[in-house]
Specification:
By secondary structure, the protein is of the alpha+beta class. The chain folds into two domains: about 110 residues, Peroxidase, domain 1, CATH 1.10.520; about 70 residues, Glutaredoxin. About 65% of the residues lie in helices and about 15% in strands. A four-stranded mixed β-sheet has the order 2-1-3-4, sandwiched between helices. A hairpin with a 2-residue loop joins strand 3 and strand 4. Helix 1 crosses helix 6, helix 2 packs across helix 3 and helix 4 packs antiparallel against helix 5. The longest helix has 23 residues. It starts with a helix and ends with a helix.
């Protein structure tokens, strides 16, 4: 990880920990989660909001006023609203995307869930996702949320990543292994 990226993650981790602890103490975890989802969607869909979060050219006071107006309009829980205002004052809004990811992970861990990133050659049906989640739950011992993506380049099979563990059963990786074995032979 590059130094600037690790600094951003470190900043986001400190804010995420504080926000999560306060939300837990005030019984606002459910509201925090829905607010995070709404905020992530808003950032993804609104270029002006992305510019507000990323731009160093906007003054601190303008950034704070704008992000608090957005938070009020969205009805975010007070802990998240106040944290966003503080982040604007401190010129830390650029870490909001990492903050959202970290808080989602903390909330999932709190519920005893783990996220499995699954890559397949074609979209998984609801039944396939449920069966895969059940198999992974039996192996891991925790509820599993499937985060499925499609990559036609893997040809077939799945690539499943849960935490630091990865299982690659894709045809692309099997063909690559076969090609390497054939190179070694001849």
């Amino acid at each position: 990880m590059s130094e600037p990226a690790s600094i951003s993650v470190g900043i986001a981790e400190r804010y995420a920990t504080a926000i999560f602890d306060i939300a837990q103490q005030t019984n606002a975890l459910e509201g925090l989660e829905s607010g995070l989802t709404d905020l992530a969607t808003a950032i993804a869909e609104n270029e002006d909001l992305r510019k507000l979060v990323d731009s160093p050219l906007i003054s601190r006071s303008d950034q704070e006023a704008a992000i608090l107006a957005v938070a009020d309009k969205m009805g975010l829980v007070p802990v998240l609203r106040n944290a966003l205002g503080l982040m604007a004052q401190k010129r830390r809004l650029f870490v909001v995307p990492q903050l959202i990811t970290l808080l989602h992970d903390m909330l999932a861990e709190h519920r005893g869930e783990v996220t499995a990133d699954v890559v397949s050659a074609k979209a998984l049906t609801k039944g396939q996702s449920e069966k895969l989640a059940a198999v992974l739950k039996a192996r891991i011992g925790q509820d599993v949320i499937i985060n499925a993506t499609v990559d036609k380049d893997i040809i077939g099979g799945l690539i499943v990543k849960v935490g630091s563990k990865m299982i690659d059963t894709s045809i692309r990786s099997k063909l690559a292994s076969l090609q390497n074995a054939m190179k070694e032979v001849g």
